[in-house]
Specification:
- The structure is a single chain.
- This protein has helices at about 1-5, 15-20, 40-65, 105-125, 130-150, 175-190, and strands at about 75-80, 85-90, 155-165, 165.
- The chain is an alpha+beta fold.
- The mean pLDDT is about 80.
- The chain contains six helices and four strands.
- It is elongated.
- It has one domain (about 35-190).
Length: about 190
Amino acid sequence: MSDARAMEPPANKTASEAKTAPAKKASAPPPKPVPGGTAHWKVCLASLLGIVALDHLSKWLTIVKLAPTADRPGPVVDIVPGLFRLLYARNYGAAFSFLHGQVALLALVSVAVSVGMTIWWFRLPKEEHWGRLAIAFVVGGAIGNLIDRAFRGYVVDMFDAYVGSHHWPVFNVADSFICVGMGLLVWRMLKGKI
């Protein structure tokens, strides 16, 4: 007989019982995104692609506005007289004209560095946002200059920082992001994060 009672459907609740019954718990909130998950991956990829685009836009503008032509020598635009100016320069070497004329070697080094840094990006802890962004900066800059080497045989540079007659080697947007990215990586290493 006890089996028969267990099989009986539950009785309908009266209106007063329904009012006093505890409300059902709301469903659990959606899980929080994992730090370093897809959103951060997208930020890094967008940064890398943005760096390459900005680098090539600046190089295109430099060629159009500052490269010498048959009609005129290449103009120089003083941004901060005595400190910083824009000009057109061809760099047949690495950053800051290092390894001048070694275009094929530099292209291979750029590819190797980009692949190595990308592998490192995937091995970093997921919560290491700064380190991952720094790697995106370095790889974006390396790809920007690699495209120039592959299609032009040299890299277009345009930033000339100097004091009096002492000039820093002419550089470009890609070089700038490589330096910023390396600086961020050193900072994260010194903090013991990577």
